[in-house]
Amino acid sequence: MDKQKDIHKILEEDGYGIINKPVLPEKSLEQVILQESDRAKDYLNFLKKKSDKDKHPAQVVPTEKVPDQKSELAPIKSDEFDIPTIVGNLNWHMNRISENVIGRSEIIRQAIFAILTGEHMLLLSRTGMAKSYLAQYIFNTFEGARIFSSQASKDQTPDNYFGPYNIEEFKKGRIRHNIMGSIIEANLVFLDEFFDASDVVLRSLLTVLNERKFINGSEQIDTAVHTAIATANYMRMNEVTEAVLDRFTYKAIIPENTNVYHQLLIDHTYSMSGGKPVEPEQKIYFNQILYLYEIIKNKNRTIRIETPDFIYFMKNVLIDKFMSEMRKSDYNYFLSPRKIAKQGDFLRASALLNNRFQVNTDDLKEMYHCLTTLNSYISVKAKDKSEVDLYLDVYNQTMAHYRATGAFQQIELLLGIRQVFQEIRQNPERRDAILARKSVLQSLMDFLRKIFPTRRVEDEQKLTIESLKKNILDLTPAVEEVQELKNGIMQDYRDLY
Question: Is 123 a member of any domain?
Fold first, then answer.
């Protein structure tokens, strides 16, 4: 009997509901306080009903695991756009999926980033690694999204994706598709066994995935595609597939799970769900995700997530250093300008997912979700270091070096001067007013005191173009990247005068 109690305790701690003692998430406070979950209430009632009928009190309840986390799922209507509540619910669902798809929390978080930024994701693994199961679990989170699913084969033609040909239009000599129910109308797209598709099909998907347009001769149709998740058991590389792969901003490899405890958890979740994703009783309305998407993309006129120039500069520094490190092992490693530019969207999504409206260096650390292929190793056979670990090494070493050498202060000063030059360039008649502005003066003086501790900064209370130029010339860059920034700003000065 004591052993049975111990087993019950272990299962309960892992989030499983036991008939004779149902377990629910504990309430606590965090940044966003959410109301009591109706879903949790229904779950408790379900367990009580089962307990009255069941003759075997040790039986595990056949349902999905309820996440044991600080916040609960808050009820929200489709026309409500309270950002903290939406974000709180999104984090709750990520935890819910992680509790039911064991060992995939990083990939799940990556997929949510893909949906928030409106980008596409590629999942690679051997057969039988539950790629489809994971994708379905993620898509089932959203209410009101049109979903298109297809399993690719070499025999498929474009009409399998874009709808059958319209016979009446064909008789008139025009090629048109009946697009109802096709990929063109879908918001979320699941493409299984992606590389089994022919090059003709893959080429036809290029503009759909990137430009969100379906081009058929002279006909152009705007598609509703927001995010596609593609899965594959292998990579097929040629000029067509390389172009398609560049459309997938997020990539992950699903590794084999050899942890015996994780296998035990998988056994239990499989026995409860039958290997099929469980529909959540409360979902997130997809129009609320589109609302967050507009904010992340800076398309919302009233709400903005600020990204300081310092963050943009450090983003590019980190990417450049990461690419250099990657090329030591893979000289063909390449990040397209398109993907580098999209990091700005990722940074804003990271800030929003952490309930912030300004990007900071913590978000720079998270960039590995977008820059790397999760669970991919630099040396595959030896598994010397993963791409993620390599990026984190670059991040930690760079930030520590910049902090120790004073490079951060130099960057902030130079970017402040650059901002002044830009304002004067745009409004030359307001030059004196811009230079005399207290906020500009105080900010620059603070950095000058840190960078030139022996100088009497108080003697320079009146800024001039010449004094700004002198400060730039007197600055001795701590790192190479600061030298490049200095040179660029001096060019701006020469263009201005």
Answer: yes
Residues of the domain holding 462: 407-496
Say whether pLDDT at 324 is over 70.
Answer: yes
Strand partners, 260: none
Q: Are 391 and 403 in contact (CB under 8 A)?
A: no
| Domain edge (last residue) among 225, 256, 287 | 256
74 burial (CB, 10 Å; 0-12 / 13-18 / 19+) is: buried
Choosing from 404, 428, 450, the residue where a domain stops is 404
Q: Which residue has the higher pLDDT, 288 or 24?
A: 288
Burial of 172 (0-12, 13-18, 19+ CB in 10 A): exposed
Q: Are residues 433 and 486 in the same domain?
A: yes
Overall domain count for the chain: 4
* Residues 407 and 313: beta-carbon distance below 8 Å: no
Residues 250 and 110: beta-carbon distance below 8 Å = yes
Residue 368 near residue 392 (C-beta atoms within 8 A)? yes
Question: How many whole angstroms from its chain centre is CA 224?
Answer: 20
Question: What's 358's domain CATH number?
Answer: 1.10.8
pLDDT tens-digit readout, 359-408: 999 999 999 999 999 999 886 555 678 999 999 999 999 999 999 999 99
Report how far residue 453's alpha carbon sits from residue 342's, in angstroms, rounded to the nearest whole number: 39
Contact predicate 285/292, CB 8 Å: no
Among 128, 127, 433, smallest CA distance to 275 is for 128
Question: Contact at 8 Å (CB) between 149 and 112?
Answer: no
Strand 373-374 and strand 121-124: pairing?
unpaired
Q: What's the sign of the alpha-carbon dihedral 106, 110, 112, 116?
A: positive
Residue of 370, 278, 317 whose CA lies nearest to 61: 278
Phi, psi (deg, nearest 5) at residue 308: -60, 155
More confident residue, 6 or 231: 231
Lowest mean pLDDT among 3-7, 71-75, 225-229: 3-7
Residue 135 and residue 141: Cα distance in Å, rounded?
Answer: 10
